[in-house]
Design goal:
Blueprint (H helix, E strand, L loop, with lengths): L5 E5 L4 H12 L3 E6 L4 H10 L2 E6 L5 H15 L4 E4 L14 H29 L2 E6 L3 H4 L5 H21 L4 E8 L5 H4 L3 H10 L8 H12 L10 E4 L6
Parallel strand pairs: 1-2, 1-4, 2-3, 4-5, 5-6, 6-7
Helix pairs in contact: 1-9, 3-4, 4-6
Bound molecules: NADP nicotinamide-adenine-dinucleotide phosphate (NAP).
Length: 243
């Protein structure tokens, strides 16, 4: 349960972030969602279930103004108990052909923006001496992946930030962990052909791609008071791809 908890979720409009938002609302949390636009179905779903969702349109690529944006949300909410740094993008290409712009864009959104959001929220959490920060990494950040040097670097960096921030904030009872999803069926993986997806599924011990709800279940656990002795960890949710 997340009753009386306030959560900030980036990239809440679709896929994994949306599943986490829906799960947190169902567990009784008040959720502030960020994305470039609020999807109508999420607003309708919340209105129907009585969930307490506050939406904020923001482009996390605006790194110069991002900390001020987050500070405003902290003031408006009264402070967050939970942060899920979930927003992320891909710009896949072979390294030898990758435009610098595509390398930089992925680093800006997946790494720099996540760092700025985490430290701004973390600063407020240490004053309350409580909080759980969850960074959405990837198994690719642990193992690399052909065609994803930019994305893999961003997720490896996010794992390093997770451990560094966990060390810095632990004495104030603020926990920082990362989830490392494997292949999850969302818009991010939708462009793959069904043959490619089937091939991947056959290589996964549990023989299927993950669902956003598989990630939301772990996010709920890490966000909750059931996990208050867990920090600095990177937890894969990958159907056994890399055990
Ligand atoms: P998705 O369906 O493509 O959704 C991405 C989310 O990020 C959307 O809500 C999007 O908002 C938001 N976002 C992207 N750029 C943004 C920006 N500049 N400003 C604000 N919001 C922005 O992706 P997903 O599969 O759910 O992935 C969620 C996270 O899990 C990502 O960090 C991803 O790297 C990670 N992950 C995914 C997989 C997978 O297989 N799917 C595997 C490992 C890790 P808009 O709707 O406004 O664009």
């Amino acid at each position: 349960m997340l009753a009386n908890k306030k959560a900030l979720v980036t990239g809440a409009s679709r896929g994994i972030g949306k599943a986490i938002t829906v799960r947190f609302l169902a567990e009784g949390a008040e959720v502030w969602g960020i994305g470039t636009r609020e999807p109508a179905d999420l607003a309708e779903q919340c209105a129907a279930s009585g969930g307490n969702l506050h939406w904020h349109n923001a482009d996390l690529g605006n790194v110069d103004t991002l900390e001020a944006t987050i500070e405003n949300l902290i003031s408006a909410s009264g402070g967050f108990d939970i942060l899920v740094n979930n927003a992320g993008i891909t710009r896949d290409n072979l390294s030898l052909r990758m435009p610098l712009e595509d390398f930089q864009k992925v680093l800006d959104i997946n790494l720099t923006a996540a760092f700025l959001v985490a430290r701004t929220v973390g600063r407020a959490m240490i004053r309350k001496r409580a909080g759980s920060i969850i960074n959405m990494a990837s198994v690719v950040g642990m193992h690399g992946n052909g065609g994803q040097a930019n994305y893999a670097a961003s997720k490896a960096g996010l794992i390093a930030i997770t451990k560094s921030l966990a060390a810095e904030l632990a004495s104030r009872d603020v926990r920082v962990n990362a989830i490392a999803p494997g292949f999850i069926a969302t818009d991010m993986t939708a462009a793959m052909t069904s043959e490619a997806k089937e091939k991947i599924a056959q290589a996964i011990p549990l023989k299927r791609l993950g669902k956003p709800e598989d990630i939301a279940a772990l996010a709920h656990f890490i966000a909750s008071d059931e996990s208050t002795y867990i920090t600095g960890q990177v937890i894969p949710v990958d159907g056994g791809m890399f055990f």
